[in-house]
Design brief:
InterPro entries: Cupin_2 (IPR013096), QDO-like (IPR053146), RmlC-like_jellyroll (IPR014710), RmlC_Cupin_sf (IPR011051). By secondary structure, this protein is mostly beta strands. The protein has 2 helices and 11 strands; from the N terminus they run ββββββββββααβ.
């Protein structure tokens, strides 16, 4: 498996990859066994349903716009400049209810099966298949 080295831009993507996950663009920027960094755009009214990562911590840095996170029964609003940490094993959901596109850097550590999962669900339009494949890649939707 190749790993990222040196500079990378959103326009390039790691190994030229750009994914569309249920209509939303993700660009991998960095990938090693210990960490994965992606740029993600969340259009108005987009969301990622409640799920948990069995083997990774996930951190989002909101670069533009505003996102809402559901974590441990609380709703967290995060505007540009905010970092939100979502520890492994804790269910969480992401929502963009702002009416505008939000952009974030998404950091996952360790990488585990996350890179392979994102590549596998690229272009899929069936949420049930995305959920099914999540179970094969250590991501459990609840």
């Amino acid at each position: 498996m190749d790993f990222s080295k040196g500079p990378m831009t959103i326009g390039e993507g790691f190994q030229g990859q750009k994914w569309t996950i249920l209509g939303e663009p993700y660009v991998p920027l960095h990938m090693t066994p210990s960490s994965l960094l992606m740029h993600a755009e969340f259009g108005p009214d987009s969301f990622v349903p409640t799920h948990l990562h069995e083997t990774q911590d996930e951190t989002l840095y909101i670069m533009e716009g505003e996102m809402e996170f559901e974590l441990e029964g609380k709703t967290i609003k995060a505007a540009a400049g905010t970092t939100v940490t979502l520890p492994m094993g804790i269910p969480h959901a992401l929502h963009n209810r702002s009416g505008k596109t939000a952009r974030a850097l998404v950091f996952v550590s360790p990488t585990g099966k996350m890179y392979d999962y994102m590549a596998r669900i690229d272009g899929l339009s069936d949420p049930a298949e995305v959920v099914r494949l999540g179970a094969e890649h250590e991501i459990r939707f609840v």
